[in-house]
Amino acid sequence: MKIKVKFFAILRERAGTAEVTRDIGDGSTVTDLWQALQQDFPKLNVAGIRLLYAVNQNYVSPDFKLSDQDEVVFIPPVSGG
C-alpha cells in the first residue's frame, strides 16, 4: 500500500521534509507506519513524545488500520502562549 505522510512543526524539522510517500504492508496500522518512519528518519525517535494522528483529515487512534492511498498526518504537541 502507498501512504502519503505529512509532518508538521518539530517533526518536519527532524525528518527534514514536510511530506513523504511510504510503502507499507496490507493491514498496517498508524503505529506500524510510525515505527517504519522512525527507521527511515532516526531523528523522529523521541522518547515519550505524544502525538495526535489524522487519517484523511479525521483523528484516529494509533491502532487504526490504514488503506491504500490514505493520507496520514502526525501532529506533535503544541507549545507556546
Structure overview:
By secondary structure, the chain is an alpha+beta fold. The chain has one domain: Roll (Ubiquitin-like (UB roll)), CATH 3.10.20. Helix content is 22%, strand content 28%. The chain has two helices and five strands, in the order βαβαβββ. It has helices at 9-15, 30-40; strands spanning 2-7, 19-23, 52-55, 58-60, 71-75. Strands 2-1-5-3-4 form a five-stranded mixed beta sheet. Strand 3 and strand 4 form a beta hairpin. The longest helix is centred in the middle third of the chain and has 11 residues, at 30-40. The mean pLDDT is 93.
Discrete helix count: 2
The multimeric state of the shown protein is: single chain
* Helix vs. strand class: alpha+beta
CATH architecture: Roll
Question: What key attributes describe this structure?
Answer:
28% strand, 81 residues, alpha+beta, Ubiquitin-like (UB roll)
List the SSEs and their pairings.
Blueprint: E1 2-7, H1 9-15, E2 19-23, H2 30-40, E3 52-55, E4 58-60, E5 71-75
Parallel strand pairs: 1-5
Antiparallel strand pairs: 1-2, 3-4, 3-5
Kindly summarize this structure in a few lines.
Helices cover 22% and strands 28% of the residues. The protein is α+β, with helices and mostly antiparallel strands and 81 residues long. The chain has a single domain (2-75), classed as Ubiquitin-like (UB roll).
